[in-house]
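ugh ok fine here u go
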Amino acid sequence: MAATATTSSSNMTTARRRSMRIIRKMRSRREIGSNRGMSSALWAIPAAQPATTSTLKSAGQKIHSDFLYKMTNSPHKFVVAKKDVVAPQEIVVEKGDVGVINSENKNHASVFFIRIWKQVELSKDDLEVIDVRKTGDGFSKKICNVCHKLKKTKEFSRNQNAKNNRSVRRPSCRDCRIKMEGTGVSRADKIKWLEKKPVNEPFVCPICKKRTIAGATSKVVLEHDHRTGKPGGWICDSCNTGLGRFKDDTELLKSAIKFLKKNY
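structure:
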């Protein structure tokens, strides 16, 4: 009888211990309960509060506010060349070239021009200060992302319509786009390759290996050498855009691979 009582008492003690462990875990997770059996120092540490919509919104507003402050208080002073200038060492600064002033005095300024990627000292009479925040779509002037010249916005082709049917123009000017597009595919090659174009059939892009239905779930494009006009083959529209971004330059693609291997 005594042995039975002892066993029963032992079982109750074990069960009680298990219950207490479960309760402590629940209290810890829910951040509720009292500090019985726990160090008061632990309970003095404030619990991490879950992110709420209001806290996330507040954080987002602060980031946006900081960004706007940096934009409106930028230490960089941008200028545009008012005319063609031949600087020392036969460095040619062309009319419309955009640069940033690194240092200046009363009559001269040391300017880093983006297009030539060089520092040039010029007379301030040859320069005009501009606010780059007041350029681009929606303004009368825009900076080309290729030649980095300040041009009239109408010199950039329309690309698409954005929110509220607002017109969006291409980032590069018409002159630069003509140079970028280079030589097109000849009429004879177009006829020849159109006979091989995959239409409404299973298609695997030879570059990204994406499997689609040509013409239905993907757009296929005839990739070609923009220097010679020679066709390379049918690929998906995404890869065609990607190669265009890398200017069909294998060295740039190698640089991208090197970057990925280094950082990921």
